[in-house]
Amino acid sequence: MKSLKDSSNDITKVMLAGFIVSGSLLLMVVFCTVIDVVASCMGDASRDLKGISQGDPKQYNDQYTVQSYGAVTCGEAAMTMIFNAYAGTDKYKIADVLQKGEPYNLYIRGEGTDTTKVPVVSKLFGMQAEIHHFDLDKIIESANNGNPVMVLIHSPYTPGGGHFIVVVGGDAQNVRIADSGAPAGSSMLLRTTTRAWLLSYNGNYDYVTFKPDGATGGGTACDQQSGSPNPTGSTTLANNDAVKMLANAGITVTSSGNCSNRNSFSCTSLDQVRSKTIQGIIAFQKASSCKITITGGTENGHAGGTYSHSNGYKLDIAPTSCVTNYIHSHYKYKGLRSGDNAPMYDDPNGNRFANEGSHWDIVFY
Description:
Layout: E1 27-31, H1 39-42, H2 45-48, H3 63-69, H4 74-87, H5 94-101, E2 107-108, E3 112-113, H6 117-123, E4 127-132, H7 136-144, E5 149-154, E6 162-170, E7 174-178, E8 190-194, H8 195-199, E9 205-212, H9 221-225, E10 236-237, H10 239-248, E11 252-253, E12 273-274, H11 275-288, E13 293-296, E14 314-317, H12 321-330, E15 332-336, E16 343-346, E17 352-355, E18 360-363
Parallel strand pairs: 1-9, 11-13
Antiparallel strand pairs: 1-5, 2-3, 4-9, 5-6, 6-7, 7-8, 10-12, 13-14, 14-18, 15-16, 16-17, 17-18
Helix pairs in contact: 4-5
Organism: Reticulibacter mediterranei
């Protein structure tokens, strides 16, 4: 997305590059409220929020990502600013939110931003989000109370479509915003505009309240800052969330018992699987273009250990000829595994694929 430029005289001069969105104007806001968090972590996230540019190479892991995604990561940039503001650190980059959000298609290039994905992606960062309906006065009130507000504006005046910004305060006339479309280091990253300017793009208001999600195992951004334990080293997912991620990527999950009960040997469960494990198998599917069927997850019946199925590190997949041929031709052979003589192969990231005959046993580190 390009930046939104203030224009009190000619609103048609506002330029938005990015998404084509059909229908009426839409103003989507994400009202970030953290509940039941220790006082030292609550602070004033609106005050502490730092503007970042979605075009800043430092926000990405490589130049290819900047060139491929920099123009369309306003949503990821807004979420990064908010997560960091609550954490009181700069621990997250746009690349972190982009990586976790990509399987959910947080944005659709050329078609629009999917605001319903914001709560889904936020959960991967230890936050639960719920969408509600309200007005601009409440947006500003929330921001003034220390809770930055993520706003999606859609305009009929531009050929492009939408752009996420963050509201961090305001009064009866003005609104203070953070705009990732501005260049890195620019004073436009954090600036004051008018209520009239913002209202020119409204039409439908939504807001999303945030609260800590203890079920993910990753804790909130504040929990992680204060050193709360995270035994698996990554955010974990509920079974249904993991299955949805996989389904979006065309990956199926099967079991002999046609069930997902983690305590049953005949089921295939993904409850408490690490998000990095799910991201890993999706990446493998994209790279290999093979049909992937998961036959084993976190259910009982697997061997124990730190990097085990039960701890969310491992998946079993069906050994189709496509899968086996891809592993053999692209990954490095590492010999036979002690105990069962399963041939082992490592991908470029160090993840290990072991052929157990009836399935490929994969550990994603």
